[in-house]
Amino acid sequence: MTLYRAAAPATLRIVPLDALTLIYHRASGITHVVDAPVPEILDALADGPLSGEALLAALAERFDLADPDPLALAVRLDELAAAGLVERLCAM
Amino acid sequence: MGGAVNPAALLAAALRDPASVLALDPPGWTALLAVARAEQLIGTLAHRVQGLAIPPAAARVLEDARASAEQGRVAALWEAEMARRALAGIGIPVVLLKGTAYAAAGLAAGTGRSIGDLDILVPRGRIGEAEAALLAAGWEWVKPDPYDDTYYRRWMHELPPLIHRERDRMIDVHHTILPLTARITPDADALLADSVALGNGLGVLAPMDMICHAAAHLFADGDLAGGMRNLWDIHCLIGEFGTEGLEARAARHGLASAVRRAARQANDLYGTPIPESWCVWDSVDPLYRRRLLARDGWGRPAHRFTRLGFYIRSHWLRMPPGLLVRHLWTKWRKAHVPG
Amino acid sequence: MRHVTSLRIGSIGFRVGSDWSAPIAVLRDLYRDYPGAEDGIPDFNVHLFAARPWRRLVRPSVHIGGDFVIPDAAPLPLAQGLLAAEMGMNLQMALGQRRYLLLHASAVERDGRALLMTGQSGAGKSTLAALLMARGWRLMGDEFALVDPATGLIHGFPRLVSLKNEAIGVMERALPNGRFGPALEGTPKGRIRHLVPDASAIAAMAEPARPALILFPSYGFEPAERPVLPSECFVRLTQASTNYVALGERGFDALTGLVRSVPAHAIDYPDTATALTQVERLWGVL
Fold first, then answer.
1. Which entry of A60, B160, B212, B262 is 20 to 30 Å from B226 by CA?
2. What is the ipTM of this complex?
């Protein structure tokens, strides 16, 4: 089962602006310019790694999503993994 | 500038004995900073003289260099981490080389060091998988048609260079370290078998192997470009780990004479503690020293020695074609990013 | 490097060397009221050199070198030596500046507060800054504005104002008593003439100012204005900075601080007179 682990909160400087949120990732020196649901995903993963399903459920509950779409979440997680903000862990 | 003092020698003296900078006048400082920049040692210099009562203008330049090196370190270690993530999925351990290794392992050689591309070592048998994993994780070829470069692949000790599409940083994937003669090649299996795990999924070479690698790198390029920094790396490594077992290890990799020469040059420039018997110079050592210190007060390369060039060039003729290709490749690469 | 000069622009010191005497002589003349590098130790070195010894005399061609260089940069003819020196200094700032966040922006100051104007080449930021200088504002810089991450203040870089093509005539008329450099024809950017910043700009070159207004001017359009939100301002300013990434978290602090505390507007203008009116009005309602 694949777990997703977010960058530790201590490594993230999150500055919400009007239309976007800025995230400075200390470990990489990269500034990410993001929009919903990225900050929400990182927040949901702040307490520890979750599987895709568990993450979707947590997001659906917190934000009262009517029709949570696992594929859309998977795409976002791929982007975040490529950006280095989330790490894919394969439990052996 | 204090008369005819070679500014590169000024830099060596400053690194060796930081208090010596207190005697510098403004032209001396100006030349020292220019050469330190040119030799990519300004971050190192900044750490060496930290805390000394130097002129404010010099202190500011060095403070900026220190901050710059620190940010470079963060970026370099991040590249290592992303490479680890890309290769962890297929179980290939990442052994770091050169500057990134020194930084990751918290070695003295990493303090203030400017770090360029990421260099890693993987098992030769798995290099195809490593290549595929990196390509899947967002790296791409720098050169357009690497698959035509079967010649390169067959002879070279590394993959053609890869650059990350988003982060615009290069990675060099090696399966061995550079051989300096056609007859003996480094023992890549031993390099990997004896590598040291850092506990975070990354590894570095065993200390004596790191010294061998630095020495190989120093003499692989006939220009000795970056020589002062390379020798400072060796100086720090020997200072931290000593020389016990170094000669035997170097012999195993066919690098005995390169390591001995690097050690005695480092001893001469920086006072590196080495066995007395290693300090004997041969007839070419003065030429090497002169070449290493060939900078003017503006940091520009000075008096290129055609004589030394011919000496080195004669070696190239005896070397396998792959190394000539590497030489040309390195020249092209130099235009891209300093290593 | 037989010919050398030392000069300080704002708080940045340069040592400029040259294989030819002419560019150094011009620099010394135009920068004659500027101090030398502090403590005699420059922040950056620039050198103008001939690729081969005989090229010093035969078809002299000036290559630009320095602590920081771009490989394969095209050389300039000796007649444009002043331009080569300027490009060399720009390059050191663009590639080597690490103390301050560097923005491609002009900056002028009034009452201790700074107006920043940023945009692509040709947007008019240099010309507008020079015109504001002619109207009594203190010129902080026509090309680079520096943000101190620790304080959020703007530090100037009042180099010679680089005027191009039509802007030259505009400024010659606006400042009939201004000090101008030689007219340089046939440069990669057309006609260029440099304007020496006035006495008040030079005297106050080391004094920072609190940023109060950011403008994104666009030349050649019907007059229009719109506010620019911090998010857009942030993204546009990262594009206008050469060293944002290199500064790491300090750069992030400097830029987020700037965009969250300073109002920004985009202004479109058909001519400089309109632009100056827009500027004065936006400044007046702060």
1. B160
2. 0.94
